[in-house]
Amino acid sequence: MCVPAILFFIVFAYLPMPGLYLAFIKYNYTDGIFKSPFVGFDNFRFLVMTGDLWRLTLNTVLYNLAFILLGNVLQIVVAVFLNELRIKWFKKVSQTLMFLPHFISAVLIGLIAYNVLSYDYGLLNGILTSLGMEPVKTYSNAGIWPFIIVLTYLWQSTGYGSIIYFASIMSLDNEVIEASEIDGANALQRIRHIVLPWLKPTFIILLLFSLGGVLRGNFGLFFNLVGANNTALYATTDIIETYVFRALMTNFNFSIGSAVSLYQSIFGFIVVITANWLVKRFSPENSLF
Amino acid sequence: MDDALESRSIRTDLSGLVVKIVGYLFIGLFSLCCLLPFLLVLGTSFTSESAIKKFGFNFWPREFSTFSYKIVFENPDLIVGSYLVTIAITVVGTSIGLFLVAMTGYALQRQDFEYRNGISFFIYFTTLFTGGLVPFYLLVTQYLDLKDNYLAVLLPGLLSPFLIIMMKAFVKSIPHAITESAKIDGAGDFTIFIRLILPMTTPALATIGLFIALGYWNEWYNAMLFLSPDMKYRPLQLFLYNVITSADFVRNSAAASNVQLRDVPLESMKMATAIVATGPVILFYPFVQRYFIKGITVGAVKG
């Protein structure tokens, strides 16, 4: 019964792995993978010399840390507040609205960002000029993109991510809440001393799991927000995934692309093992292996 | 004594009130932020191009116009074709994928299956270490020879470790005794799976099916990698991507209308296309939302 699944993962996940050999050759199309000249670590040397590898690592990791930390905090805030609300229809409608951004494609998110940020017609500049301020050239100003990307990410994922925390609060024993009320705890004290400590294990585990993916980038988000070839913004918006994509589709430099992927996979693997070791120490039943 | 009680109950009420007020404000504002961008796209799609040029994008059309929709619907060929491609890929992919995910998840949850831990790890490992994009691209284009073939979009989305783990978590709630007693009655594994397990896990199947379907519906990445512009009909989101990023593409797709090329309302057509491409999902979504919530809460706890 598992045969189709095993075949699937062999073909689409395991077969490409040896292809990382590309990272050690100077690939050219006529010779193919096995006849192209072997160059050892030259591709990696090139990536280090140009400073690309450092820049990509820094961007990818910093974005992910911002996503993970701010994302989880905001998700907890949303879940805790939702739990305090009493009006049924309001809860239902707001939950529905907050999940919505997660269900649309990255392409549409790119269009929405363009709607807000476009220099000529964007809503932002419309507001700025009507207030008598100068319009901003967002798409050529690298400095503000970290904010735009992080905000967009939070906009897209907070509602969806808060589900886990909300479900966790729901599983909190009602008797504990009632007991605290009898003891005279007010709403703030209840949140601070009961609800938040209850969420702590979930928070730590989710944090550690996400840390495992700290070198993985959200290609769709970056590619559609920044655009396929907006070189002006690479300094602050280029991550591993977008770089590899360009290496493949624009520059046809298969070896450089593979070198970056190999580096990403190996480091990512080390990070996951470390994160899992931390989970094990914190809560053995939740560790992966 | 009375005073102390009195003041305490007032204080309690006050903090509860503050939390509630802040909560309603915060959740209300955030919900609004999640809705407004959609209204911005919708409003702009009904705005005349000249008003956009003058006033920019806005929630409320300053000059109401359905011109861009008219052009989109006068040249239905491309968008209808893209729709059909996406619907076909979604239906076929979801049916096959769901069956495979369910079967795999069930088998890996069977306590009498001795290789289940090994295979589980074999599947899980693929999330830890990947070959990356380049070898994957070469595999699909050169070794599987699927360039410009819809299968290049269909096949990679069939199974995901995340959904198999989710299925395992769902099946966990079915007592193993049911499988055992059916086995004693002489039923084979496939019979048990199809006749007993599938009917018992309908909510799980709905949830997982929706996850797969959403993935196919929003799929544009593999389509962009493997389906070249030589193909006339490509998935809907890729069509939308082309409309957004290429003015020439929009002009060409409007070629059948009797519109001068320079009069094609480029900006509002982007929005109109986005609305036509996304509308159905948004209308459909409130009805299926609870399944996604169920899936996330079950799948979050490791299966």
UniProtKB/TrEMBL annotation, chain B:
Q: Which domain of life is it from?
A: Bacteria
Query: Where are its TM segments located?
Result: 21-42, 83-107, 119-138, 150-171, 192-217, 271-288
Q: Which PROSITE patterns match?
A: ABC_TM1
Kindly indicate where the leader peptide sits in this chain: none
Instruction: Provide the Gene Ontology terms for cellular component.
Output: plasma membrane
Could you tell me which residue ranges the ABC transmembrane type-1 domain spans?
83-288
Bilayer topology: Multi-pass membrane protein
| Compartments where found | Cell membrane
* Any single GO BP term: transmembrane transport
Where would you say this protein principally sits, based on its record? membrane
Query: InterPro entries, from UniProt?
Result: MetI-like (IPR000515), MetI-like_sf (IPR035906)
What are the alphabetically sorted keywords of the record? Answer: Cell membrane, Membrane, Transmembrane, Transmembrane helix, Transport
The name on file for this protein is: Carbohydrate ABC transporter permease
Q: Which organism is it from?
A: Paenibacillus antri
